[in-house]
Amino acid sequence: MPPKLKGKLQSKKKMKKQKESGVIEDNYKKATLEVNVLQDHLALQRQIMRQAQHQKKEMRGKLHELLDDIQEERDTKQAIYSEMTRQHQDLEQQSSSRIQALEDQVAKLKLQLSISQEALQTLKEESEHMAQKKEDEITELKKEVQNMEAEYGTILHSCLDQLLTKLSMADQKWASESLSIHHQYKQMLQDCGLNPLDI
Prior knowledge:
Among the domains are: 1-34; 96-192. It has two helices and no strands. It has helices at residues 3-126, 128-191. The two termini are 91 Å apart.
């Protein structure tokens, strides 16, 4: 082979090797850059994950606190409800006792009226004159009985009206407070980014 040709072939081989080594070096640099970018991306993802876990722990703590507050509020409301129920039962017993006492008095008055009517019959038989006199007395006694019955009826209705008014006021008060507390905790859950319907 002529020397010129041989030299050209050798120089072409050298250029080819240089090109190949340049491509390999470029590929190495690109791969190194990609590895660095991926490592940075991985480090960022780890940092984000740590922050998310930290926030998750904080949110769990807040959620437990809120749940404890809600349970405490429920216990308080239950205690109040039990106390109101006990007071209501006491009032009912007192009203029942009062009604029974009034009924006993009415029965006694009716008995007295019956005795008076029998006495009137007896007096009528004894004398017309005495009968007229006793009849006036009986009329007066009837008026007293009616007045007493009306008075006891008024007292009974007054007691029942007062009981109903107190019960209505207590019911409105606790319903209003329950709604206010419910709204407050609902707002607190929403402020924490929680949906009350999911709890």
